[in-house]
């Protein structure tokens, strides 16, 4: 699949649609999920045009990778969830349930998060 520059997160990066931004640096942007599934639910995206985690792993520079990983940790720190703990998750492809085709890591926190993966069915 080719990267679609009109996906919703590309539009957020270009400031064509609004987002509640938590953190930004040269490599990454973090903003609140529009349909939060936990008291804290924030998405962190790289600024480069990457479809998903395998695409990022294959094509991103070492600086982009390091910057993105640091941005995720920094966002969690700014959100105040570091002490109590939190979850980082990325959905990939159809089985993963990925809806937006621009790499994003979800940060969930603010309560006990329960089972990591719900039962199948
Ligand atoms: P995923 O299933 O991992 O692709 O998750 C996509 C996430 O993006 C969902 O949790 C959506 O609620 C969220 N989302 C979709 N559109 C927006 C938007 N405009 N601003 C913030 N979050 C969004």
Mean pLDDT: 96
Q: Roughly how much helix do the residues carry, as a percent range? A: 25-40%
User: Helical region count?
Assistant: 4
Q: Order of SSEs, N→C?
A: HEEEHHEHE
- Please state how the strands of the largest beta sheet are arranged side by side: 1-2-3-5-4
Bound molecules: adenosine monophosphate
* Radius of gyration computed on alpha carbons: 14 Å
Spans with pLDDT under 50 lasting ≥5 residues? none
Main sheet makeup: 5 strands, antiparallel
N- and C-termini, Cα separation:
28 Å
Question: Based on CA inertia axes, which overall geometry fits?
Answer: globular
Strand content of the residues, in percent? 15-25%
Structural category is alpha+beta
Q: State the total count of DSSP E strands.
A: 5
What does this structure look like?
The chain is an alpha+beta fold and 121 residues long. 29% of the residues lie in helices and 21% in strands. It contains four helices and five strands; from the N terminus they run H-E-E-E-H-H-E-H-E. The protein has helices at residues 8-13, 53-59, 62-79, 93-96, and strands at residues 21-24, 28-32, 40-46, 86-89, 105-109. The protein has a five-stranded antiparallel sheet with strand order 1-2-3-5-4. The two termini are 28 Å apart. The model has no long low-confidence stretch (mean pLDDT 96). The structure holds adenosine monophosphate (AMP). Residues 8, 17, 19, 33-35, 43, 91, 97-100 line the site of adenosine monophosphate (AMP).
């Amino acid at each position: 699949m080719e990267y679609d520059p009109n996906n919703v997160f590309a539009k957020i990066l270009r400031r064509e649609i609004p987002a509640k931004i938590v953190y930004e640096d040269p490599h990454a942007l973090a903003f609140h999920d529009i349909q939060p599934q936990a008291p804290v639910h924030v998405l962190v995206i790289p600024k480069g045009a990457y479809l998903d985690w395998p695409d990022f792993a294959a094509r991103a520079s070492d600086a982009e990778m390091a910057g993105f990983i640091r941005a995720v940790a920094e966002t969690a720190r700014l959100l105040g969830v570091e002490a109590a703990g939190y979850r980082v998750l990325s959905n990939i492809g159809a089985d993963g349930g990925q809806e937006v085709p621009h790499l994003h890591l979800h940060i969930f926190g603010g309560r006990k998060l329960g089972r990591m993966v719900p039962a199948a069915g």
